């Protein structure tokens, strides 16, 4: 029987797993005998190195004879520091698993002069792990094509913790409407495409925006835009009202452009999980990595640009919409219980135990 840990890295500026995607992983795996290990590191190199050894001794190297599984949520600590951490405890039959939240070389470095250099460094960091949990098959292929040597598995969908007892259930039960929800950072620096929606002419579609940094002055003459306010991420599924949730990013309404737009070709936006937890079918870019998942599970509409929304929505009849809602509901029952992270971790544990000739250790 392996001991199981989630290693969370803490800095002087706060605990970096506070944002929802990481804290939800913590929550679901702690339900299943994973122990959370806090690893503090300060600002100077000496302090970081010493604190790594102290925390390793205190938190993990307690029972030297037992095999261990350590999950680290990525990106987190610098690879040079992780090497020290790994060297300190790897002698104790430890398997290291990297769960990717973001690939920074694509998210921030695409279309920059040192893009190849950033790719090389990121792959080098990921190759320190025995297993890497990727978002989806598109990201996994990119990793392998660029030199990833670790065993790579697909998460497929981020889970989303929400208290369904507090959910109004309106989105699970309501019929077809023409309001499009967009939730997230509404700043023009992050979601510039929103501030180009006035370039499109819609007669029946309305956009309902939830989130921070809404720049109201830029929407003064937009009758089809309504700001719905800001809510905590865990509360959002209980308040969102709309017929579809929009998964879009970048600088333009005609394609997902720029760094964040291009990133859609590889990542699973956490926004998708939010809409599923909220009971809302989705609208996604046809070149996004998640488009295949959306079509296969019949949970929404795939478009090439935002100008297609009105016609696409109009062509969905009541029966088709009801089927999508039912499919969303079935997925929502999974993600609010941590199905996807538990499933992929079980795959890894099964693989480890098969290699060792041991009995399967279920998560």
UniProtKB/TrEMBL annotation:
Q: What class of enzyme is it?
A: transferase
> Which residues fall in a coiled-coil region?
none
Q: Which residues form the Glucosyltransferase 3-like C-terminal domain?
A: 180-347
Q: What is its EC number?
A: 2.4.1.-
Keywords for this entry? Glycosyltransferase, Transferase
GO MF annotation: an example: glycosyltransferase activity
The UniProt record lists the Glucosyltransferase 3-like N-terminal domain at 6-156
InterPro entries per UniProt: Gtf3_C (IPR058592), Gtf3_N (IPR058591)
Q: What is this protein called?
A: Glucosyltransferase 3
């Amino acid at each position: 029987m392996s001991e199981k840990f989630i290693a969370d890295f803490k800095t002087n500026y706060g605990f970096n797993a506070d944002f929802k995607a990481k804290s939800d992983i913590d929550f679901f795996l702690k339900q299943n005998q994973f122990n959370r290990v806090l690893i503090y590191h300060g600002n100077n190199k000496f302090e970081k190195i010493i604190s790594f050894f102290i925390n390793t001794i205190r938190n993990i190297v307690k029972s030297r004879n037992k095999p261990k599984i350590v999950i680290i949520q990525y990106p987190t600590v610098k690879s040079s520091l992780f090497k020290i951490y790994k060297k300190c405890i790897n002698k104790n039959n430890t398997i290291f698993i990297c769960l990717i939240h973001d690939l920074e070389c694509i998210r921030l470095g695409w279309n920059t002069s040192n893009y190849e250099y950033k790719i090389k460094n990121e792959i080098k960091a990921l190759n320190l792990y025995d297993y890497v949990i990727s978002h989806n098959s598109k990201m996994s292929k990119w990793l392998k094509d660029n030199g990833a040597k670790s065993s790579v598995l697909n998460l497929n969908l981020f889970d989303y913790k929400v208290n369904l007892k507090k959910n109004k259930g309106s989105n699970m039960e309501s019929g077809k409407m023409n309001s499009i929800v967009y939730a997230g950072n509404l700043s023009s620096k992050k979601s510039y495409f929103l501030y180009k929606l006035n370039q499109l002419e819609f007669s029946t579609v309305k956009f309902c925006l939830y989130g921070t940094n809404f720049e109201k002055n830029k929407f003064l003459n937009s009758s089809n835009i309504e700001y719905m306010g800001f809510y905590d991420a865990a509360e959002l599924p209980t308040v969102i009202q709309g017929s579809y949730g929009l998964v879009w990013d970048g600088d333009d309404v005609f394609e997902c452009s720029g760094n964040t737009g291009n990133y859609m070709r590889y990542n699973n936006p956490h926004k998708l999980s939010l809409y599923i937890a909220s009971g809302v079918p989705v609208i996604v870019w046809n070149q996004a990595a998640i488009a295949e998942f959306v079509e296969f599970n019949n949970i929404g509409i795939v478009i090439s640009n935002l100008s297609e929304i009105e016609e696409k929505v109009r062509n969905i009849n009541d029966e088709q919409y009801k089927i999508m809602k039912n499919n969303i509901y079935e997925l929502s029952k999974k993600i609010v219980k941590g199905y996807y992270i538990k499933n992929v971790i079980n795959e890894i544990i099964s693989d480890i135990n098969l290699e060792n000739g041991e009995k399967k250790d279920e998560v």
